[in-house]
Amino acid sequence: MSDPAKKNWMDFLEDEDLAFIKRFMLFSGSLKDLADAYNVSYPTLRLRLDRLIDKIKILDNQRIDDDFERQLRAHFADGRLDSQIFKKLLTAYQNQKKGTK
Hints:
The protein has helices at residues 9-12, 15-26, 31-38, 42-60, 67-77, 83-100. With 101 residues, it is mainly α. It has one domain (12-100). Helix 4 (42-60) runs antiparallel to helix 5 and helix 5 (67-77) runs antiparallel to helix 6. It is elongated and about 50 Å long. The two termini are 29 Å apart. 10% of the residues are buried.
């Protein structure tokens, strides 16, 4: 049985992500039609979808039980953090966590 206090991956998604998923479903998964609706190229839309898939995988990963780390990893998957900054922030956070135990 799952812990009701534990958040579901959908609880971590931003409104923009949920709107994208909704539109994707309403367009029956047609990336071409969705790209037209967003007025972007197919490769741009494909990149957005791939990043969202990676983000959902991270948010759904049950081995990551820390909300801050989950969000940090999701922002990296979403392309909002470059790898150098992500690594520095994650290392600093993990070191800080070790220091408070």
